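Researcher: Hi, I'm a grad student and pretty new to this. My advisor asked me to get structures for two proteins we've been looking at. I'm not sure of the right format, so I'll just paste the first sequence and hope you can take it from there.
Model: That works fine. Here's the first sequence with its C-alpha cells right after it:
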Amino acid sequence: MTDLSDIVTSAFWRVNPPDADPAETREWLEAFDALVQSEGRERATFLLRKLLDHARARRVPLPPVLNTPYKNSIVLADQPQFPGNLEIESRLSAIVRWNALAMVVRANRAHAELGGHIASYASAADLFEVGFNHFFRAGQDGDLVYFQPHSAPGVYARAYLEGRLPEERLANYRQETRGGLSSYCHPYLMPEFWQFPTGSMGLGPINAIYQARFMRYLEHRGILTTEGRKVWAFVGDGEMDEPESLAGLSLAAREGLDNLIFVVNCNLQRLDGPVRGNGSVVQELEGLFAGAGWNVLKLLWGADWDPLFARDHDGILLKRLHETVDGEFQTYAATDGRFNREHFFNKYPELRELIAGMSDEDIDRLRRGGHDPVKVYAAYRAAMQHGGQPTVILAQTKKGYGMGHWGQGKMGTHQQKKLDDEALRAFRDRFAVPLSDDEVAQARFLKPAADSAEMKYLHARRQALNGYLPARIREAAKLAVPSLQSGPRNQSTTMAFVQLLATLMKDETIGKRIVPIVADEARTFGMQTLFRQFGIYSALGQLYEPEDSEELLFYREAKEGQILEEGITEAGALSSWLAAATSYSAHGTPMLPFYIYYSIFGFQRVGDLIWAAADSRARGFLVGGTAGRTTLAGEGLQHQDGSSHLAASTIPNCRAYDQCFAYELAAIVEDGARRMLEAQEDVFYYITAYNENYPHPAAPEGAAEGILRGLYRLRPGDGLQLLGSGPILREVMTAAEMLQKDWGIDAGVWSVTSFTELRRDGMAAERKHRLGGEATSWVEKCLRETKGPIVAASDYVRAVPDLIRPYVPRAYIALGTDGFGRSDTRAALREFFEVDAKSIVVAALAALDRKLVRGALDRYGIHPVARPPWER
C-alpha cells in the first residue's frame, strides 16, 4: 500500500532527496546562471519550457511546478520603503487590539451566552491595519472590502477610534435589541456601516470575485468608470475548504481580474484544530490558486527571519520548514522560544549554529509574516501593482497572537471569550497599552485625546484615502420605470416574462440598467431572441465565428454585451446577481438584475446566498423558471420544484409571487421595479414562471390592487370559494365549471398571486389587533362576505396555501403537491398529486357534504389508493 506521507510530500512540498552527484548539480546550476546573465530571463524561461516538454515526452516524472519554497515571495532586495510611522501605527494597532478584546470580554462578563471571538482578529490585526492606513480607499469610487467575519470586533474598535461608533454601542456588542453591534458583518442590521455580509463561510470569496467581475462589466458597457478600484477579500485558510470559496477562482483568472486581491489569513487553525495538521495549507492553496491562474504572493515570515535566511547558504532552514507540518507549526505558535529552539532549530547541527547568537527571547520574538507591517505593506503594494491577473496573498499568522498561554496557538482559542485579570494584564503588557491595573480589570475602552499624535495620524491617513470605511450608502439616483402591459395571447408565462424583459431593455431611461442573468438555460427560457440585439457579455469580445452565425438569432458575445451568461454555476450566477442588485449602494449606480433559472436550483440549491442577498438589502428580480412540481413535465424528481415558495416566505424582504396570467406578471414586475428604482425600497422579488402554454386573457377591471396584494376575484359564486395560484388556477377554473355543470353548485374563483404577501398582511393585522388596535387582513376583507367552504390549490406543497389558514374566515381545505416529483405528463402528474380539476371538485364536495364524495369518485373514475402521494 502506498504511504500517504509520500503522496503529500510529492504533491505540495519541496523536500528534495539527497543529491547523488553534487558536482554535476552545481555545473547545471552554474550553466543556467550563465544563460540568464548572457541571454536574459525570457530565454531561460523558453528553455525551461522546452526541457519540461522534453521530460514529458521521455515520461520523466515532473516536480510540483506550481509550488515555490516556503518563504516570502518578495525578497528583501525588492522590498519597498515603508511609508508610514511604524511607532505610531504600532501604538494605534495595540489600542485597536485592546478595544476589540475588551468588547468581547465585557459582553461575556455581562451575559455568558452572547459569545464572540477574540483570536481571529488577534491574528489578522496587522493585515487590516496596514490596509486601513495605506491602501483601502473609501467612497463609492473607492475600494470594496469583504472583511473576515470573525474579525468584526477589530473593525468596530477602529471605527470607535475614528468617532463613527459611540462607546455605548461597543458596550452593547452582540446586544442589538438594545442598540448594540451585530455579531458579524450584516448590512441589514447596520445599513450605514457594513457593505457585504460574510458571516456564512465561503460566500465572501465568491461574492468578491463576481463583484470584481461586475465592476468590469459596468466599465465595458460604458455605465461607470471603475479603473483603479480594487476589491479586497479577507478570508480564513479554513474557510477555503468551502466549495463556494474555490468556485470562482478560474473565472477570476480567465477574465484577468487584476482589480481583485484575496488575503488569506493562514493562521493554520480552524475552529477545532489545525486546518491541515498533517500537511501544509499554504503550499496546498498556492498550488490551487497558481493552477487556476492567479498571481500568488507568500507572506510567511517577518523581518526577524531575514538574517537567518541570508546566512542559510546550504538551504537547511528551508529544508526544516518544508518538512514541518502545520500541526507542528501550531505547537510552535503555542510555545515559547526555549521550546522552539529545542524542537525546531536543534534538529540539525547547521540550524543550531545558525541561531547560536540568539537568546530564547529572540527566538520567541520571531514573527510570522502577517504580523510584520513592513512585510504586509510590501505584499499589498506588489498586489496593487500587478496587472493581468488576480492576486492572492497567503499571509501566515498565529491564531490568538499576543494572547500568551491563554490563547495563542491553542486548540480552543477560537472559543476563547473570557480572560481573567492576569491574562488581560499580560495582553496589555505585551502590546504596551497605556492602562492601569484597575482599568484593565474593568476592561475599559481606550481612546486617546483628539489632539494626540495617534489620533491625528489615524485621521490623516484616512483623509488621504478619501474617508472612512466600511461605510454603506443607502440610496442612489431614482430612475423612472415605464408602464408595462401584456395583451391576450396563447403562450407560457416564461415567454411573457421574456417579452416584458425585452421591453424594459429597450426603454430609453432604464434600458441600459437592466441586467439579464442566466446560468446556462437561456434557450430553455426562450431568451435566444435577445442574443443578437443585446449581446452576451465577454471581456474578450468574440474571438471566433459562432457555428450559428448565419442564423438570425446567432450566439453573439461582445465586450459591451448586456446579458450575463454565467455557465453551469448557480452559485456564480446568484453572486453575479447580488453584485448587480447592490450596485446602487456599492457604486452609487442603480441596476435592475433579472436572474432566471430552473426554480428547483434556487432556494433549494443556493438558499444561503439568497439569504445573503436579503442581508445585503439587494434590489432585483429572481425568476424561477420551469417552475411547479406538475407543470415541468418529464424532467422528474430532481428538477420539479414544489417548495421554493415556502422557502421564499421565510425571507422578510423577499416579495414572492406565483401568478397565472401575463397581465398579472406585468403588474407585478412594474410594481416591483417602481418600488426598487423609484421608491428606493430594500426589497427583492421572487417570481415563478412556467413553460406551459395556454391562453392569457386581458386584465379584468379593478384587479390591480388584488394582484399586488395577493388575492382577487375572477368569478363570483355563492356555493363555495375556490382559490388557485400559478397554472393550477386553470385547474381551479375548470373545477368551478364542473361543479356548476355536474352538481349545480355555483363556485366563486379567486386568483392567488402570493400566499406569502397574504400571510404577511394577515400577520400584521393579527398583531395590531392583539396589541389593542383595529385591523382586518386582506384575506378576510376579500372572503368574509362570501359563502361556503374555501378550497385552495397550488403546484407547491400544501404548506404554501396553508400559510393563510389563520386568516381564512371559514372552513379551509388546502391542496398541494407534497411528495417526490416524477416524470410524466402534466395531466398525469396533477392527477397523481390530486391537484387536477377532478380532485379539486372532490375536495369541494367533501367540504360541502361528504355524502357526495362517493358519487363523485364514481363519476370521475377516481380510485382512491391506500397511500397518499407523499408516501408513494
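Researcher: Oh nice, that was easy. Here's the second one.
Model: And its structure:
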Amino acid sequence: MTQDEPCHVLFLDDNPEDRAWLAGELARALPALRLWEIEGGEAFAAALERGGFDLVVINHPLQTVDSLDAVRAVKTRYPEIPVLMFAGAGAEQLAVAGMKAGLDDYVVTSQEALARLPLAIRTALERTRAQREAREYHARFQALFEGAPVGIYRASPAGQLLEVNPAMVEMLGYPGREALLEQSAADLHADPEEHARWQGLAAREGAVRDVEMRFRRRDGSLLWTQNRTRAIYDQGGRIAYYEGVLQDITERKQAEQAIRELAGELEERVRRRTEELAAANRELEAFSYSVSHDLRSPLRSLDGFSRILLEEHAAELSPKAQRYLQTIRRNAQHMGHLVDDLLAFSRLGRQPLRAEPVALAAVVREALWNLTPEREGRNVEIQVEELPVCLGDPALLRQALMNLLSNALKFTRGREKAEIHLGCASEKEDPNEAVVFVRDNGVGFDMRYADKLFGVFQRLHRADEYEGTGVGLAIVQRILHRHGGRVWAKAEKDRGATFFFSVPLAPTQKTV
C-alpha cells in the first residue's frame, strides 16, 4: 500500500468518544484511509453483507457485540480481509484468543503504541496482497500443470515420484495419479543403464535438456520421450528434488524407423536396378560389337561388289542396271554411316567423363579446322566471340561443337553467303554456368516441331535435300546432359536457327 493509495477501512467501535479519537488518529497517520464507522451489531452485520472494504479495525471492548465473534464473522465471510484490534494494556489473553480466531495484528490503545499503527496497517494489507497473489499464481500454475499436453513430474533425488500431472499419467497408461506415484523413475525406464546415465548427468550438470529416453508403459509397451529435467537445490546446496517435462515422441521415432526401412529398401532396389542396368549395358556392348562386325561386313561387301561391277563391267550393263547398282552403293554407304553414328551414340553412355578446365575458344578452333573440307569452295563467314573456360571433357565438348557447326554449315549451303556466329548469351539461370550459342542464317525450321530436334532418327528436312542420319543432335544432347547442362534451339523457317547449350564454368571462371 502506498501513501496515496486509497484504502477502505471498516471501523467497528460502539463508544462514540473512543471512536472519534481513534478515527482522528487514523486519519492523521494515514490520510488515504476511507473510514466506514460502525457503532453497533446490526450496523456491523449490514456492513458485512454489503462488503467493499479492504481492512477491518475493531476497538475492544464492544458493548453490542463480542470482539472475538466479530473477528470470526469477518474471517468466515472474507478470509482474505485483514483484521486489526485495538485494546487496552494487559489484554494479552485476548490477543492470543484473537490470533486463534484469525486476527492479523493487535495494537495497544495508547499514544505511544499508536505510533506503530501505520506500519501495522501497511503490513497487514501487504501480507494480504502477497497471499492473494501467491494463491493466484499457484492457481495459474496448477491450471497449467493439470492442463499441459506434455508430462510434468517432480521426483526425489532417490528417484521416487512426488508429483505428476494427468498427461503423464495418461502417457504411461496408469489408471490414476496414485498408481503412478507408487512407481520410481527407475521402474519406469525401459533401460536401467540408460536411467543411471541420465541420473548421473542430471546430478553433475544440474540440468538435462532434450535427451531421448525410453520408458515402459504399464502394459509393457515402449514409449519414446524427449526429456528436460533440472535439479532444485535447498539452502544447503543439496538437491532437494528434480522437476522435468516429458514429451511423447513415439510417433516421430516410428516415422524415423519407417523412413530408415524405406531408405534401406530403396537402396536395395537401387542396387538391384544398378545391377540390371550394368547387365543391360553389357548386353548393349555385345550388341554393339555384333553390329560393328557382323553388320558392317555385309554392308562393305554390298558396296564393294557394286563398285567392282560398275568399274569392270559397265559396258555389259544397261544404264538402268548401272543406276540400280549406284542406288545400292549409296544406300549401303548411308547404312554404314548410320551404324557408325548409332555406335557413337551408344558409346557416349559408357564412356567415362574426364572433367577438366576446357578453353572453349581452342575447342572451336580445332572443330573448325576439322570441318575445313565442308567449307571449301563456299563463301562462309564465321564470327567467334570471346568464350569462357568451362569444366568438361575436351573430346566430348569438341564432338558437340563439331556437330553443331556441321549442322550450321549444312543448312546454310543454299545461301550465297553463309553466316555463322558463336558467342555467349548474357542471360542465364545459373551464375556458375555458361550459355553458348551457335547462330546461322540457314533454312531454319518450324518451331512447332522443335521437340523432335534432339531425338534419334528425327529429321525436320527430307533426306534428299540434306544428308544425315538424324543422330547428330541426339549425340549433342547426350553429351550436354552428361555435363549437367542442356541444349535447346530457336528458329524461324527460312530465317536461320540458333542453338544454345549450357555447360558448367571452370572454378576460375576465366575467359580466353
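Researcher: Is there anything I should tell my advisor about the second?
Model: You could mention this: The first strand starts at residue 7 and ends at 12.
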